[in-house]
Design the sequence.
């Protein structure tokens, strides 16, 4: 069985994008997302998409892999697009066609605005998804990401926010996801061997069938947590104070470049919003 | 003779949830000395107090009475500060039974770095220690792997590397091979032997596998919380009846020789020998 879940889609390579400091990636993604949502002009998506394509090429992650990652969201993109097509109203002039389903109560009208909206929304979702998966999962290991978050948020320690503890919890959670999935499978098999039926019956019956899985899983998770805590104590863990790191995060010149790109992009998007004459969302 | 690395003096311990009575003591009046560089196996039936002893030495549990010294320092002292506890754990590392529940990080080398990071070792030094530790346990090629993809024996070796990287004087293995398949068990035992012989680390091996205990310099047998037998493997295993009383097995070769002695009246001197010696002894005595 293959347990590659969620964040485990790391694509091994030593490209520029892979080598970026995780903090730079965090900054890039956040500003990029803001830019995506600020963009109202259709032309604004041209620079947004270009930067993304540029990043994808530099990262050496095969396009095919990224497209495969998008597959899961095809439904959501189509669904929101279809909703937009039919629920956006426009002017008499921009009407494409009208169809009366039930006279005087239900007519379907299709406007150009609806098509534009749907297109731009789809573009937004795709940009958002490609950007986050490219920077956070294909080119960054979970541990780099949590390290990045920990160091980026470390000023918050001053106001007593337990940043280190949160990062540690995230690391441990990531570490135990595959272990617990394996365990769930084992328990399910054990219950099946005792005659449990997980596949038949209605929703309530199916939900009830999960109880004999969830309870042993919880019990064992607590036992694991207890053992892990003892093992961590034995290895001298006593919180974030006085702790050093093997890999120190270091900013390079290239990080500056990738800090500037999203800022310029955001500025550009705002300018296009104001002065551009493409279709506005 | 230098000071023993670990010394227990009349140590008793009972778990808080168990109620009164003499039998409830997990460890009873135990005195034991472990010298620097030794390889000691602690044998015992389930509930004989062997794991509890390990936890007492590592200060996970505190004894009800008696004294424990680690490297000459009394660790049962009332005003042990958190830093003192820290010092003890730096000297005495521990490897547990379940390899899954002692690996913290999602990458092998990050996990090995966990211990030294906690100790506040500078970054370059950690890198060096991690590479060395992985080299010692023969896991260098897996440095960038995810731990959940490794076999049980490999995971356990990563856990051992994580302890070695802290540069302890002594490592306690608390039934570290119990959950492994025979191949994994062999890998881990070879690593333990190498640690003791080449890296000169004191090893305390808690186990219930006789063929592992045979490899030690000294075997300590515990029975219901008390010290029962203490000696070289040959001495301990030359008294099979006593071991059977403690609910333990003896190595198969010893059992064979013992049965020959009792059933055929031969007089083979019992002890732990290699395969050829056993064959030779049996041949000469029949």
Sequence:
């Amino acid at each position: 069985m293959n347990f590659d879940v969620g964040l485990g889609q790391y694509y091994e390579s030593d490209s520029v994008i892979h080598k970026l400091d995780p903090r730079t990636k965090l900054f890039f993604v956040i500003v990029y997302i803001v830019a995506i949502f600020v963009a109202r002009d259709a032309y604004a998506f041209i620079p947004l998409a270009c930067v993304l394509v540029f990043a994808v090429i530099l990262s050496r992650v095969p396009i095919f892999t990224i497209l495969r990652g998008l597959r899961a969201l095809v439904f959501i993109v189509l669904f929101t697009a279809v909703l937009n097509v039919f629920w956006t109203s426009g002017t008499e002039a921009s009407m494409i066609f009208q169809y009366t389903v039930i006279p005087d109560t239900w007519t379907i009208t299709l406007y150009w605005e609806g098509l534009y909206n749907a297109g731009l929304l789809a573009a937004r979702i795709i940009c958002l998804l490609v950007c986050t998966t490219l920077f956070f999962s294909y080119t960054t290991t979970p541990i780099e990401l949590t390290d990045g978050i920990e160091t980026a948020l470390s000023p918050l320690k001053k106001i007593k926010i337990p940043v280190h503890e949160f990062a540690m919890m995230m690391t441990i959670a990531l570490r135990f996801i595959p272990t617990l999935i394996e365990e769930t499978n084992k328990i399910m098999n054990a219950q099946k061997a005792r005659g449990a039926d997980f596949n038949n019956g209605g929703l309530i019956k199916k939900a009830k069938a999960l109880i004999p899985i969830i309870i042993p899983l919880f019990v064992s998770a607590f036992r694991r947590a207890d053992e892990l805590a003892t093992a961590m104590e034995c290895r001298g863990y006593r919180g974030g104070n006085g702790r050093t790191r093997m890999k120190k995060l270091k900013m390079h010149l290239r990080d500056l470049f990738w800090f500037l790109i999203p800022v310029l992009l955001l500025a550009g998007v705002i300018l296009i919003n104001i002065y551009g004459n493409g279709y506005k969302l | 003779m230098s000071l023993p690395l670990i010394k227990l003096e009349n140590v008793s311990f009972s778990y808080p949830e168990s109620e009164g009575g003499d039998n409830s003591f997990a460890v009873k009046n135990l005195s034991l000395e472990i010298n620097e560089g030794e390889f000691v196996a602690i044998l015992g039936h389930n509930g004989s107090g062997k794991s509890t002893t390990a936890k007492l030495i590592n200060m996970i549990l505190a004894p009800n009475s008696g004294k424990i010294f680690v490297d000459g320092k009394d660790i049962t002292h009332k005003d042990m500060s958190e830093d003192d506890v820290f010092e003890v754990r730096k000297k005495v590392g521990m490897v547990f039974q379940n390899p899954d529940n002692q690996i913290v990080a999602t990458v092998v080398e990050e996990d090995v770095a966990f211990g030294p990071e906690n100790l506040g070792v500078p970054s370059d030094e950690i890198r060096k220690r991690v590479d060395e530790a992985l080299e010692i346990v023969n896991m260098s090629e897996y440095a960038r792997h995810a731990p959940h993809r490794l076999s049980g024996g490999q995971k356990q070796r990563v856990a051992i590397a994580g302890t070695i990287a802290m540069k302890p004087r002594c490592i306690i293995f608390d039934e570290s091979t119990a959950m492994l398949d025979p191949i994994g068990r062999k890998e881990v035992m070879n690593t333990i032997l190498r640690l003791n012989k080449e890296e000169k680390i004191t090893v305390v091996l808690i186990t219930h596998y006789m063929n592992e205990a045979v490899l030690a310099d000294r075997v300590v047998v515990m029975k219901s919380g008390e010290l029962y037998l203490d000696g070289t493997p040959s001495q301990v295993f030359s008294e099979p009846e006593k071991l059977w009383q403690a609910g333990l097995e003896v190595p198969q070769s010893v059992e064979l020789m013992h049965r020959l002695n009792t059933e055929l009246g031969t007089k083979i001197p019992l002890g732990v020998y290699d395969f050829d010696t056993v064959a030779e002894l049996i041949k000469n005595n029949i």
About this structure: The mean pLDDT of chain B is 88.
